Protein: mRNA export factor GLE1
Amino acid sequence: AGSKLREVFDKINNLLSGKPVQTEGQMVLVTQHPQGLEFVCYKLAEKFVKHGEGEVSFHHDSAFPIAVVLSGIWELHPRVGDIFLAHLHKKCPYAVPFYPARKEGTSMEEYQRILGYEIHDSKVEEQDHFLKRMSGMIRLYAAIIQLRWPYGNKQGAHPHGLSYGWRWLAQMLNLEPLADVTAMLLLDFLEVCGNALMKQYGIQFWKTMFFIQKSYIPRIEAVTSSGQMGCLSRLKNFVQKCLQAQEIPLPKGILTPSFWRT
Structure:
């Protein structure tokens, strides 16, 4: 509910602002320790990324309430936003976007870690699980860049707004595609913030969509084996439908004005 989200936001904002906050039966103040504020910023940013790779990866709609709170906190406490991006880029280099190359002397295990895979007892996580986590983090990022906390002053610019999403899309399309990963990330990104980018960039956006259909999807196809076609087919269908209708649907789960009255 909107009222619950406001409570969460106020609690985080008060904590970061140095006000006493009641949690688990005790009062907490960031001024109680010289590094208190820095520690809280670090752990909070890390927690938001964990929400992306956990909750959002399983429940796509949850990207929006989490993102709107982070967007508002980022506006008031830029340090949290900076550290959030650092955590996000480390966990999901595709959010940069960047496909790290394997350097000489880097072990396979270490390289897989750099690519974002989780490794426990020398066992690499399943590809499906890896893709799900990356998908959740990209969806959270795509939600953040288009949302603003509705109770802020809105005087300044969004601390990390749609221009970053436009840049991400352009840079993504300049990279050589990877099987599995590229199609999924593009589809996630366009489903979540395609509508907002369409409204902001108009004809330039449609030129980009046309480029994806005519030039980039064939390049993804060229590196994709027959067993990995699922996500690519969904991307193809999505782009084709949008180009035919000249419209990108609003993402599922977007927060409407009526949400804030709940």
Observations:
- Strands lie at 21-23, 26-28, 119-120, 123-124.
- Residues 114 and 248 are 34 Å apart (CA to CA).
- The chain has a mean pLDDT of 93.
- The chain is about 60% helix and 5% strand.
